[in-house]
Amino acid sequence: MLRMKKVLKGIIRGLDHIVNFIALSLILAAMFLSGYMLWDSHQVYQTADAKNYEAYIPTEKSTKSFEELQKINPDVIGWIRVNDTNINYPLVQTDNDDTYMNTDAEGNYSLSGAIFLHCANKPDFSDFDNIIYGHHMEKHMMFGDVGLFTDKEYFDEHPYGNLFFDGKDHGIEFYALIQADAYNERLFSVSSEEPEAKQAYLQEISDNALYKRNFELTENDHLVLLITCTSEMTNGRNILVGRL
After folding, report:
1. What's the whole-model pTM score?
2. 17 three-class SS
3. Residue 85: alpha-carbon gap to chain centroid
4. Which residues contact 143 (CB under 8 A, 6 or more apart)?
5. 109: phi > 0 → left, psi -120 to 50 → alpha, else beta; which?
6. HSE (side-chain half, CA atoms, 13 Å) at 241
């Protein structure tokens, strides 16, 4: 009987050691996973930082560096900047709207993607509405700062941006901040050149505007729409609308 008790105690101690080992292993695994997730998140934000592209920023006097970026990735067609924000990125375009969801402006795989022009738009921005996409990211990365324009005071104080293409700077005057459903077919399609279609498009902008400025868009304007996700509505998109 005494021997059996000793055996049972030994088994219990053994099980106790096993449980402790499993618990410690789970804690260490959780710590490792948390550390990896933090590292991975840091890597994503690091590759999304606009500072990575500062060497390529085009200027009116010299576009040599910008042309060097185009040699690295021929899909680079321009540069988008929103004054006094961290939106200051190369602009790319290819024959679909999936590639640059997870490819950066240098053509490398990246979860942060790139800022890209809708594949159905003309690269010379001669369309009535020119649709530009970018991921919404925290820490002011990619199109994260578009969300700042949902604040009326911020919207009022930041009316301008710049679009570089065809070797020239083109100013952008922002007209409205709108929120719309991602399945709004009219807003997310390139409008035809018919006056009725353009008027319908302008009406759609007006109907979805949170704020707009005291000037009117016309059928002769070339619009630029900066589009990114928002958590403020299901399948929602924040859209900063400007005119060239």
Report:
1. 0.81
2. helix
3. 14
4. 87, 115, 133, 134, 135, 136, 137, 226, 227, 228
5. beta
6. 28
State which H helix or E strand residue 159 sits in: none
CA atoms of 111 and 79, how far apart (whole Å): 20
**Side chain identity at residue 243, one-letter code:** R
Tokens of 238: 């924040």
The token duo for 168 is: 């020239």
99-117 as b/e, with b when 16 or more CB fall inside 10 Å?
Answer: bbeebbbbbeebbbbbbbb
**Cβ-Cβ contacts under 8 Å for 184 (sequence gap 6 or more):** 204, 208
Exposed/middle/buried for 76, CB within 10 Å: 0-12, 13-18, 19+?
buried
Token pair of 229, please? 């996700």
Written as tens digits, the pLDDT of the chain (244 aa) is 656 666 666 677 766 667 666 765 666 555 544 443 443 444 445 667 889 899 999 976 777 899 999 999 999 999 999 999 999 999 999 999 999 999 999 999 999 999 999 999 999 999 999 999 999 998 888 999 999 999 999 999 999 999 999 999 999 999 999 999 999 989 999 999 999 999 999 999 999 999 999 999 999 999 999 999 998 888 899 999 999 9
Q: How far is CA 101 from the centre of its chain?
A: 9
